[in-house]
User: Which sequence fits this backbone?
């Protein structure tokens, strides 16, 4: 009616997500993303797709500052696994020197989507990750992980490494959530 006002998008807001960086990483032992966390955004969405590593490898992630990954015992996780068998399992660990973001890779088509809260702030960094690993037989396995960096450090970087230390490739997209 004429007395009702509907405003779907507030004036001045273009998008809730802003693309910071996207592309492909060629074969390397460590894939580094330096200076991606800044004061411009508090929270981030990161997508890694077409991650190609060895069979049944784990893919690790670390946050860092000024090109140096944090290798301290600051990482924790809880994970629910839904393997191709359909039997749910859970696991968790504390006092780790990295975070496993893809627990079981296949040769190709591995995928992870993460929401990262407050990496640049001087408080704990919380990561919610959804992963699809394809394993050796290309049977999909889904992983839902809650990860935490349990230190009040302002991080600027992200680095990804395969467990065997062998080179791997990937596509990536890094977004910042608009501050409200």
Assistant:
């Amino acid at each position: 009616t004429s007395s009702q006002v509907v405003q779907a998008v507030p004036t001045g807001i273009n998008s809730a997500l802003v693309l910071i960086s996207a592309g492909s990483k060629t074969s390397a032992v460590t894939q580094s993303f330096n200076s991606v966390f800044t004061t411009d955004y508090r929270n981030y969405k990161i997508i890694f797709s077409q991650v190609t590593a060895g069979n049944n490898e784990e893919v690790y992630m670390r946050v860092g500052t000024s090109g140096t990954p944090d290798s301290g015992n600051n990482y924790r996780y809880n994970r629910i696994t839904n393997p191709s068998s359909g039997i749910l399992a859970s696991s968790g660990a504390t006092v780790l020197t990295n975070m496993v973001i893809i627990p079981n890779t296949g040769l190709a088509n591995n995928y992870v989507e993460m929401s990262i809260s407050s990496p640049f702030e001087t408080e704990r960094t919380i990561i919610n990750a959804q992963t699809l690993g394809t394993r050796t037989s290309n049977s999909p396995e889904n992983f839902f992980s809650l990860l935490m960096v349990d230190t009040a450090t302002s991080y600027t970087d992200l680095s990804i490494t395969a467990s065997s230390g062998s080179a791997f490739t990937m596509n990536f997209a890094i977004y910042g959530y608009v501050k409200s």
Q: What stands out?
A: Confidence is low (pLDDT under 50) at residues 1-10.
